[in-house]
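>> received
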Amino acid sequence: MRVAQVEEFGGPEVLVPAELPDPVAGPDEVVIAVDHIDTLFVQTQIRAGAFGEYFDVEPPYVPGGGVSGTVASTGAEVDPAVWAGRRVIAAVEPGSYASLTAVPVDHLVPVPDGVGLREAAALIHDSVTALALLDLTDLKAGETVLVTGASGGMGTLLVQLARSRGARVVGVARGVEKMELVRELGAHEVVDAASPDWPRHAAEALGGAGADVVLDGVGGELGAAAFPLTAPGGRFSAHGAPTGGFTAVPPDEARARSITVLGITDVQIPPARRVSLATRALEEAAAGRLRTVVGAVYPLERAGEAHAAIEGRGVVGKVLLSV
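>> returned
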């Protein structure tokens, strides 16, 4: 099978094409003929050698994430009448940057009619985390939510899902093109992160005491500037770190203002719940209520270029790989 493999920790150039033996389905597994592959910013950070305390990988390795595709073969304990030839998505750890991948059957999520495999791939991780965050923060109708990184793969989904819950949504995005997209997806107000005084503009857009919920998918200095915009008694989720680090929230300040602070460890989702959440997202997409934004698609052999595009932050929405 064809793969993209990290030969050593480093820049995008270390992610190169390679050939590995085809996988064989175990008794409770299927082999998926991969169509599209999900990419995440954290995969670029792991490739560069970061987050070793969270991810136990050593080169050479095939990055893990998620795939969409068609079930090509089934293991001895899997009913081929149910699964053979079926369009599916699945989270894959490790080994998703590949033309074939073996996955436990209970990790599969069928793709409904009306949803393309490209669009489905864009939902594998981001929609699951987005839904889990909204459940975790218990966002309610009538509340106000601030979404940083609102034009990214997960940010675009958070804006739509928060709006569908009846919340008032303020998005933070960088530049006119990204701001226009976020507004088009349903944000009531959008603030330009490129402006040095964006927190003041965000405070004005939020009005009153601030945001009941802040969903920070950026981290670093921007996330730190977003934390004071949380209303007393509100909820702040520091789940993203494309800047290189998660937002460091002062514990004393959070306690003084009765703010509940959530982190990436709070959205570690077991397989069964991941399947349930992904099913919900695909149903929303099939019904036309959830739109995926795919900004660029690269062939598997050019996975290094895809990583460079992700790190450059010039792409609006998701970056995918195609097989």
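>> The chain is about 30% helix and 25% strand.
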